[in-house]
Amino acid sequence: NNDVPDIASPIRTKAIMETYGLTFKKSLGQNFLTDKNVLMNIVDAGDITAEDDVIEIGPGIGSLTEQLARRAHKVLAIEIDQNLIPVLGETLSPYDNVDIVEQDILKANLPALVEEHFDGQHPLKLVANLPYYITTPIIMHLLETAVKLDTIVVMMQKEVAERIAADPGSRTYGSLTVAVQYEMDAEVAFVVPRTVFIPQPNVDSAIIVLNQKEGDVERPISEMVFFKLVKGSFAHRRKSLWNNLQSIYGKTPEIREALQEALDASEISAQIRAEKLSIHEFIVLSNNLIKVEEKFN
Ligand code: SAM
Predict the structure, then answer these.
(1) If you measure from the C-alpha of residue 176 to the centroid of ligand 1, how many angstroms do you get, rounded to a whole number?
(2) Is the CB–ligand 1 distance for residue 30 below 6 Å?
(3) What is the pLDDT of residues 117-143, one digit of tens each?
C-alpha cells in the first residue's frame, strides 16, 4: 500500500510516541530510524521482492516494517516491548501481509514461528535494525537456529559490523568474524550516521549483509573443537598461536609435542598470530587437534 503516508519522519515518530504516552526505552535499545532513504536502502540491500518472506526483529513503531510490507510477500515482526504492540497494530493497519508477535527474539522458538506464520513456499530473509545492547547474542542465535535464512540484513554499531566482515590479517578480525563467516558470506553494505535516529545513539551504524554460502561449505569434523580453538586463539590477541594453544590445552612436554604435531600436520607455523589464520586453516587445525583433545581432555 504505497498511498499511505510513511511512518518514518522525526515529526511523526515523536507524535506517535506522544499519542500513546510512550518514552524511548534505552534499556531495549530503542533508537528509531526516521529517514525514509535509509529504510529503502536497507530493503534494497536485502534485495527484497514480492517472492520473499521476511522476519523482522524489533519493529519499534513500524517504520522499517512498513517498507518491508510494501515489497515483500509477507512479514513477521517480533517485538519484545508490549507497549509497542498496540502502536504497531495501528501504524501497520494498512498492510494485510504483516503479522506482529510479542516475544523476546532470544527466547523465541523460531522454527515454530516460521511454521505458524509462513507457507514455506518462499525464500526466507531476515531484516532488522538491531538493538545495540544484544547485537552479538542475536547474530549468534540466528546462526544457530534451525531455520534456514537465505539472507540476513542487519543494522548494528559500525565497529561490530566491521569486525564481522573483516578479512584475515586485519586489526578487527577475531572470533566473531570466524563464527559468522564460517556460516555465511559477510559484507558491509553502507554506513549510517547517528543523526537519522530518534533518540540519537552515541555511535554510528552500518548495515551488514550476510548471505548463505554457495556450493559445498567446508565443515570441521568437530564443531566443539573448532569453536574452542577459535575462541582460545583470540583470547590473548598479542600472543602467538603457540602461546594461546598452550593456554587452551596445557604446557606439559607431552601436550606440547602433540600440539606441535597438529601444527605440522596442518602446515601452520607456531609463531603466527590467530588473526592471520583463514577460516580454512582454523578448520584444518581443529581437525588435527581432535587427537590432542581425545588424549588430554
Ligand atoms: N525497527 C525500528 C526502527 O528501525 O526504527 C526499531 C529499531 S530499535 C534499534 C530496536 C527495537 O528492538 C526496539 O523496538 C526494541 O524494543 C526491540 N527489541 C529490543 N530487544 C529485543 C528482543 N530481545 N527481542 C525483540 N525485540 C527487541
Answers:
(1) 22
(2) yes
(3) 999 999 999 999 999 999 999 999 999
Give the separation between CA 244 and CA 156, rounded to whole angstroms: 30
**For a substitution probing ligand 1, which of 81, 87, 113 has the most ligand atoms within 8 Å of its CB?**
81
Provide the 3-class DSSP secondary structure of residue 198: strand
Alpha helix locations (H) across the chain? 10-19, 36-45, 63-71, 84-91, 110-117, 135-144, 158-164, 175-181, 223-233, 241-249, 253-266, 279-296
Residue 3 clears pLDDT 90, i.e. is over it? no
Ligand 1 binding pocket includes 101 (Cβ within 6 Å)? no
d(CA 144, CA 164): 16
Q: How far is CA 83 from CA 15, 197, 278, in A?
A: 15, 20, 45
CA atoms of 98 and 105, how far apart (whole Å): 17
- The cell for 7 is 511512518
Distance CA 48, CA 60 (A): 20
Q: pLDDT by residue (tens digit) across 31-78? A: 999 999 999 999 999 999 999 999 999 999 999 999 999 999 999 999
Task: Please tell me the distance from the alpha carbon of residue 262 to that of residue 243, in angstroms, as a whole number.
Answer: 14
Inform me whether the pLDDT recorded for 89 exceeds 70.
yes
The minimum-distance atom of ligand 1 relative to the CA of 155 is 9
pLDDT of residue 2: 61
Q: Is 29 in the pocket of ligand 1 (CB under 6 A)?
A: yes
Are 164 and 186 in contact by the 8 Å Cβ rule? The answer is yes
How many beta carbons lie within 10 A of that of residue 123, not counting itself?
Answer: 16
Q: pTM of the predicted model, to two decimals?
A: 0.93
* ipTM summary value: 0.99
